[in-house]
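Let us practice reading a record.
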Amino acid sequence: MAHDARDGRPFAIVDKRQALLSVYAADGRLIGRTAALLGLTPGDTEPASARGKAPSALQSHERVTPAGRFEAVPGRNLSGERVVWFNYDNNLAIHRLRPVSAAQRREERLASANAQDHRITLGCVVVDPAFFDEVVLPVLGQGPSLVYILPEVEPMVAVGGGKPHAAAP
C-alpha cells in the first residue's frame, strides 16, 4: 500500500522562482493560485544566525524563505491577526498583505510580473488580503496542513531530506 505524503491534509506549494502560492484541497484539487511576496534574500536555507532573533532584528542576508516540507498550523501572530504558521519557531507564516512603510511598495511589488520584485519580506509568504480570506483561511486555516516550499538554488532532494519541519504553536 502506497503512503500518501499529504496524509489527507490540504496543502500549499510555494514556487519561489515564480513567486507563486498554490493552495490545494486534501484531495489534491487546486483551489487557488496567486502571486506572493517572499523573503528579501534568495536562498533555500535559513541562515543559522537568524534563528531565535526577533523579526525586527534580522539583517538583510537573514531574510530568507526557506525551502522544504513544513507541517503547518493556523494561529495568530502577536498582533492577533490570523496566520498559517509553517515555521513557528522562526516566526514564518503565510499571511495577508498588511500596511507597512510606503517605501516598500508592497502592493505594487505584489502586482508586478517580475518575480524579483516580490523579494521584500522577512521570510514569510505574503499574499493579497482577499486571497488570504477567500482561499488560504478556508483551506489551510481550519487545521493541520502541509506547506511545500520549492527550492530555488539547491536540488529538490537536497532540501529538507524528506523530514518535515514542525510548526507547533
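A brief commentary: The radius of gyration is 15 Å.
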